[in-house]
Design goal:
single chain, 14 helices, three-stranded antiparallel beta sheet, 20% strand
Length: 358
């Protein structure tokens, strides 16, 4: 598993807390040189037991094709080239529309077989408020272009839980996404973290966080509509048509080793975690070991985010029997064969359930 962070954007969303820079002339070349050097330096850390490649960001679709090609060649020279079981590239809808069909066809020729489109909303007023570059029609056009290029695995991102997102607009957005027919939908409740525009608006009284009842209601609508349309709710924030569950992200939830390349990227060796500093070039690499207790907590937290759940013997060996029995009696935990899982109708409060167990 390999993750590559592309820290470039053409503008910043008001809620974003990821490391990114406004792309300026020469930055992409400097970044590409740094990534290629890091690939060579860290080749022995890469584990191909789950052969996936994921370009995230930032906005990977800002990166010129020539730079992307050089990075892929560096991976090949290091012994970790394609074809990949899953090769995902995150894109901004506006980049797809501006660059056109030939751009997506080129991505496919380079081996990309899964594209994640950051739609976020299909309401123009909300998109403008978020400071997104696209509008609803451009988002739909971008989806059609990606499909026309022959990409058979498309994921879209959506956001809910905004105080200025009405239930009616949310319902309409989901319906329009279902009309497009993506294989995968990732949907995240808005969280306000870090030093971004929305955090300042909240602090200044210019924005109020959505009440929990609103967020829960929108989550329930999402689950019901996608479930009725045949999507499997396989992780708290992720839905897929059967057979299209994200392989790469599934590796995170099952604690598979992965190498993160680029500024601010994180890695996991199986026993420890490491991360790069958030600077375009010359970034440093730090690491920490995990205690046995850390590993147990991580295993529990990540596994219970998924519909597959956690091994019953593991849970019973590491959590209080009384807590397990009480949560099962409340319907917040369910035993199915040799595993425990959180039922879908309790996914929204999964963090609270997990806290009670640990």
């Amino acid at each position: 598993m390999i993750y590559i962070h592309v820290p470039f954007c053409k503008s910043f969303c008001i809620y974003c807390d990821f490391y990114s820079e406004i792309a300026e002339e020469g930055m992409a070349e400097a970044y590409t040189r740094e990534i290629c050097a890091e690939i060579k330096r860290r080749a022995k850390e890469m584990d191909d037991s789950l052969k996936t490649l994921y370009f995230g960001g930032g906005t990977p679709s800002v990166l010129p094709l020539g730079c992307l090609t050089r990075i892929l060649l560096a991976l090949e020279e290091a012994g970790h080239g394609g074809p990949y079981q899953e090769f995902t590239l995150e894109v901004n809808p506006e980049d797809i529309v501006e660059k056109g069909l030939s751009y997506v066809e080129s991505l496919k020729m380079l081996g990309v077989n899964r594209i994640s489109i950051g739609i976020q909303s299909l309401d123009d007023d909300l998109l403008q408020w978020m400071n997104r570059r696209h509008n609803a029609e451009r988002a739909k056009e971008a989806f059609r272009i990606v499909r026309q290029a022959g990409i058979e695995n498309i994921s879209v991102d959506l956001i809910f839980g905004l105080s200025n997102l009405s239930d009616e607009v949310w319902s309409q957005t989901i319906d329009q996404v279902l009309e497009l027919g993506p294989e995968h939908v990732s949907c995240y409740q808005l969280t306000i973290e870090g030093d971004n525009v929305l955090a300042h608006r909240l602090e200044n009284g210019e924005y109020e966080e959505a009440p929990e009842e609103l967020c829960r209601g929108q989550y329930d609508v999402l689950c019901a509509k996608l479930g009725a349309a045949g999507y499997r709710h396989y992780e708290i924030s992720n839905f897929a048509k059967p057979g299209y569950e994200a392989v790469h992200n599934g590796g995170y939830w099952s604690r598979r080793p992965y190498v993160g390349l680029g500024p601010s990227a994180h890695s996991f060796s199986g026993r420890g975690r490491s991360w790069n500093s958030a600077e375009l070039t010359g970034y440093t690499h730090s690491q920490e070991s995990l205690s046995v207790e850390d590993e147990k907590v991580e295993t529990l937290m990540l596994a219970l985010r998924t519909s597959h759940g956690i091994d019953a013997e593991f849970l019973e060996a590491n959590c209080l029997k009384a807590d397990i029995e009480r949560l099962c009696a409340e319907g917040a935990l369910a035993r199915e064969g040799s595993r425990y899982r959180i039922p879908e109708d309790h996914f929204f409060v999964s963090d609270e359930i997990i806290r009670e167990l640990i």
